[in-house]
């Protein structure tokens, strides 16, 4: 599994077509998860990221496997962008031993240290100071690794956001704080909870760069993160990047998003990150006309096969409950 | 062997670990330039420099989270919470992140961090700076909890906590920082976590204590007329040394747990429950708990002293238990106590 994960990690770093394929794969798995719930095959809840694939893949493209990533409970896309296989993610969602951490975590908890993915955190904002700490390790040890926190717009209003970024700023830590602004914190639109239009503006109060990025454009995300990473690796401190994106689904599986204004989804879907990137690669000649449909069909089949494999996998036994409590 | 105050023993322990392992770092509010509000990091900045010894903003959630992230990626951070009450704003990082990362990584991520905090009453700091708050952490799997009871074990337990691969909370009764005692330094002074220390031996009762109540129990036992006691300092509250307690009770047949915290939800309830469940046949009298009442820590000197279990009170409760064979009422339950 490890070599496959590392190969997937490398593909997204080096190959734009692979980035397109990964975005398609993330979408396909997230859509499949919805079906699994309908079949009654998933216990608990899940938070999917359809519409936000360009952020996950663009971030992963700009980082090294030795960099650390702190991610949230909406982490399937980030995990797969970094290299987790659909089996590892689906296995965790379904609570099977083939899951990323053996099926003991559920949908919100993924981890794979070989690609820098720290345990994903299901407490809003928790990863912001944790990323500062991972960046501290790089600074103390004198490596040029960076640490990244990916969090939602809702996290921008919790204390950990302020404390973590402030600490990183005063210590000039090699960290990148990436707000995935998908327009909703749980069921509440951002305007109802946040008095300013751009969360990136808050960077001013920490004396660090803040940038609004088109989160529907994987190339733009990649470029912005690469710039912030270069700055961090050079010892110039953290950055705050705000990726403007859109959550196609509700907050969690029970949320059908009835609060969404009519037409909003359609407007965002016109700039669907997968469709636009596919069209760009086609116009650049990296893909031939018709390739995007063929890729989507192929990957849909692969994801279906992965899901079937997970369905046949065992659930963790009682002993797993007693493992890894204390080292 | 060296003679030092408890705060000096703590600083010595951190310094010795930092000298041996470049991954050990320490930070907190005023721990660097000032050497710590309680002088528990005196001299560390001068020796190890600002990369490894840092002052933080007054932002416990931020720097506790940084400790988690640093530990998860290879450092051994020692983060100081000036008063344990300030942990309230950072508790998520300790009990919900640090304590669960090993589990939530399939065993691939370790979080060898230490959260040190001053705890307890007796110095007139008022009710928001005088609690112990073990109850915030007991019952949080994945976390070890250590309570220092003086310079003698402060050095060895702190070094063991830094060396442990789990997140460890080290609670330091602040009333003991200035207490002097003999300290065995060096590697031979390291005290394994999870081991209690039996500090006095007797026949009539087992007194289980930790932190500030250790010296209370030792004094009560030394002053007792007519009975003798095993005095056990648990040292590690989670996981606690079941064997030490059960084997003592097997011999004495009686148990009193002496806690600084309020009665409800106190750690002693677990000790009593375990003894009753596992050693019921050994008991000659009901096990008792001697605690503070379920009230806020009073500010005034006389009231604060009344609040804390004193050695005289421990002695009287034990004597009454031995004389009557029944559980004596708490002082606040007795007629005329509240006038």
Please specify the SSE layout and strand pairing.
The complex is a heterodimer of chains A (327) and B (339).
Chain A: H1 2-14, H2 16-38, H3 53-62, E1 68-70, H4 76-82, H5 86-93, H6 127-141, E2 147-152, H7 159-170, E3 175-181, E4 184-185, E5 188-189, H8 190-193, E6 210-214, H9 218-233, E7 239-244, H10 264-269, H11 273-283, H12 291-311
Helix pairs in contact in A: 1-2, 1-3, 2-3, 2-4, 2-11, 2-12, 3-4, 3-9, 5-12, 6-7
Chain B: E1 2-5, H1 6-20, E2 24-28, H2 44-48, E3 53-55, H3 60-72, E4 76-83, H4 91-101, E5 114-119, E6 144-147, H5 151-163, E7 168-173, E8 180-183, E9 197-200, E10 205-209, H6 213-223, E11 229-233, E12 236-238, H7 242-252, E13 255-262, H8 268-279, E14 288-292, H9 301-307, H10 311-324
Parallel strand pairs in B: 2-3, 2-4, 4-5, 5-7, 6-7, 10-11, 10-13, 13-14
Antiparallel strand pairs in B: 1-8, 6-12, 9-11
Helix pairs in contact in B: 1-5, 3-4, 6-10, 7-8
DSSP helix count of chain B?
10
- Series of H and E elements of chain B: EHEHEHEHEEHEEEEHEEHEHEHH
* CATH architecture grouping of the largest domain in chain B: 3-Layer(aba) Sandwich
Question: Any low-confidence stretches of chain B, pLDDT <50, length ≥5?
Answer: none
Number of domain modules of chain B: 2
Largest sheet of chain A: 5 strands, parallel
Give the helix tally of chain A.
12
| Helicity of chain A, as a percent range | 40-55%
Strand content of chain B: 15-25%
């Amino acid at each position: 599994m490890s070599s496959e994960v590392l190969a997937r990690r490398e593909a997204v770093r080096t190959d734009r077509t692979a980035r397109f394929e990964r975005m398609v794969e993330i979408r396909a798995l997230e859509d499949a998860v919805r079906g699994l719930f309908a079949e009654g095959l998933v216990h608990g809840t899940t938070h999917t990221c359809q519409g936000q694939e360009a952020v996950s893949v663009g971030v992963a493209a700009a980082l090294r496997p030795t960099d650390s990533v702190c991610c949230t409970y909406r982490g399937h896309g980030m995990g797969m962008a970094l290299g987790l296989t659909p089996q590892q993610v689906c296995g965790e969602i379904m609570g099977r031993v083939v899951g990323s951490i053996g099926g003991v975590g559920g949908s919100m908890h993924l981890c794979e240290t070989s690609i820098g993915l720290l345990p994903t955190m299901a407490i809003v904002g928790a990863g912001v100071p944790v990323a500062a700490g991972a960046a501290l390790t790089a600074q103390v040890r004198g490596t040029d690794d960076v640490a990244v926190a990916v969090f939602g717009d809702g996290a921008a209003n919790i204390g950990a956001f302020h404390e973590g970024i402030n600490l990183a700023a005063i210590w000039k830590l090699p960290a990148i704080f990436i707000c995935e602004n998908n327009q909703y914190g749980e069921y509440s639109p951002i305007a109802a909870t946040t008095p300013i239009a751009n969360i990136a503006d808050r960077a001013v109060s920490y004396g660090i760069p803040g940038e609004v990025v088109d989160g529907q454009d994987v190339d733009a995300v990649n470029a912005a993160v690469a710039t912030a990473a270069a700055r961090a690796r050079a010892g110039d401190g953290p950055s705050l990047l705000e990726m403007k994106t859109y959550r196609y689904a509700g907050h969690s599986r029970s949320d059908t998003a009835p609060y969404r204004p009519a037409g909003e989804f359609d407007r965002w879907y016109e700039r669907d990150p997968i469709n636009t990137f596919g069209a760009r690669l086609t116009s650049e000649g990296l893909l031939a006309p018709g390739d995007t449909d063929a890729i989507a069909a192929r990957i849909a089949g692969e994801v279906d096969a992965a899901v079937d494999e997970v369905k046949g996998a065992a659930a963790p036994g009682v002993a797993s409950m007693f493992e890894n409590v204390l080292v | 062997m060296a003679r030092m105050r408890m705060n000096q023993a703590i600083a010595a322990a951190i310094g010795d670990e930092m000298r041996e392992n470049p991954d050990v770092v320490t930070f907190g509010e005023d721990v660097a330039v000032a050497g710590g509000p309680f002088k528990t990091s005196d001299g560390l900045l001068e020796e190890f420099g600002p990369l490894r010894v840092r002052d933080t903003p007054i932002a416990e959630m931020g720097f506790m989270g940084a400790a988690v992230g640093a530990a998860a990626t290879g450092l051994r951070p020692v983060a100081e919470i000036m008063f344990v009450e300030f942990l309230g704003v950072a508790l998520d990082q300790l009990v919900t992140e640090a304590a669960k990362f090993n589990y939530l990584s399939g065993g691939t991520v370790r979080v060898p961090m230490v959260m040190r905090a001053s705890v307890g009453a007796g110095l007139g700091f008022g009710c928001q700076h005088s609690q112990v708050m073990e109850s915030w952490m007991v019952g949080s799997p994945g976390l070890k909890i250590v309570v220092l009871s003086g310079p003698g074990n402060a050095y060895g337990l702190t070094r063991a906590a830094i060396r442990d691969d789990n997140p460890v909370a080290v609670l330091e009764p602040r009333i003991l920082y200035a207490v002097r005692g003999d300290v065995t330094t060096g590697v031979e002074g390291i005290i394994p976590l999870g081991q209690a220390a039996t500090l006095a031996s007797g026949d009539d009762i087992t007194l289980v204590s930790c932190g500030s109540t250790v010296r209370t129990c030792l004094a009560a036992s030394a002053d007792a007329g007519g009975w003798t006691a095993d005095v056990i300092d648990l040292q590690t509250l989670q996981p606690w040394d079941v064997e030490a307690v059960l084997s003592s009770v097997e011999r004495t047949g009686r148990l009193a747990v002496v806690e600084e915290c309020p009665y409800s939800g106190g750690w002693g309830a677990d000790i009593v429950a375990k003894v009753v469940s596992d050693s019921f046949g050994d008991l000659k009298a009901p096990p008792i708990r001697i605690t503070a009442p379920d009230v806020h820590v009073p500010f005034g000197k006389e009231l604060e002293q009344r609040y804390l279990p004193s050695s005289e009170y421990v002695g009287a409760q034990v004597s009454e238990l031995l004389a009557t064979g029944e559980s004596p009422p708490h002082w606040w339950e007795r007629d005329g106590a509240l006038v």
